Amino acid sequence: MVSGHEGAPRYHxxxxxxxxxxxxxxxxxxxxxxxxxxxxxHEQRYEELGxxxxxxxxxxxxxxxxLEAAYHRxxxxxxxxxxxxxxxxxxxxxxxxxxxxxxxxxxxxxxRDNGDEATRxxxxxxxxxxxxxxxxxxRARLAGLLVDRPGxxxxxxxxxxxxxxxxxxxxxEYAEALADHDxxxxxxxxxxxxxxxxxxxxxxxxxxxxxxxxxDEAEARLAAAPDPGDDPAPAARIARxxxxxxxxxxxxxxxLDLLGRAxxxxxxxxxxxxxxxxxxxxxxxxxxxxxxxxxxxRPPPRPPLGPAEAGPxxxxxxxxxxxxxxxxxxxxxxxGLRRRHR
Length: 342
Hints:
Order of helices and strands: EEHHHHHHHHHHHHHHHHH
Oligomer: single chain
Shape: extended
């Protein structure tokens, strides 16, 4: 009745479900307190592991701690925790199929164990979408479930629209992506982020002139923002996308100037580095592009051979030429008459 589950023992579902139901219904106060303690433990573990939100998908330990904490909080306080976890759904969809499935499975498991119908329904619907298609198009539909969900505030709806637009673009559904950008402009007029993503969608569709127009608009929106802040990331992103678009147009020198500006604002940005290397290679500058010719390695000088390596003909100090053997004396020719034997 007990099996391994992610490195920890776990009761079989036939036994686990009635046990949890009994504990939840007979001792609800102890049930909530126990889940809150477990949630706090996993949250502490999540903070100890360090990293950023973007690194969760590449760090199984951080992802496990984060989702376990969400599961236990859903079991303890479903009404308060469900909107918070649903707000993380669009980001989970953007981080890939594996992350999206883990997120949806956490919803479904908590809905089965906490007795909350809303949690169970959301988990079932999200898993059904991913079971049908967990590629970019399917994950765009998953984000679409969260765009107009009841109770979502404006910030959650904006993030869901950004995620769905990016996934539509990844799936080459450019018309749908641009429609989401129109909704974003209606929700938040003048947002530089929407203009950047609209420009990227046009570039992927091959509309480079329109892409440049929207990227220039994003730069103007950022400059006109009432509180732009000191973060250089937005300006670096705009410069990087402008440089990449000019590289597609064959304007390599202009692209290099913009990509250099992006790298000055965000040193080490991998996308900007790759784009700059591609521009250098297009100009024939292989050294700057990263393709450095390898120098021909000269063979090292051979050390003098010792007696063992040189063989029996090696010359030893104090010995005559010829090595270990003493040379045979040369036979003198015989000038006399050979004796005839009768």
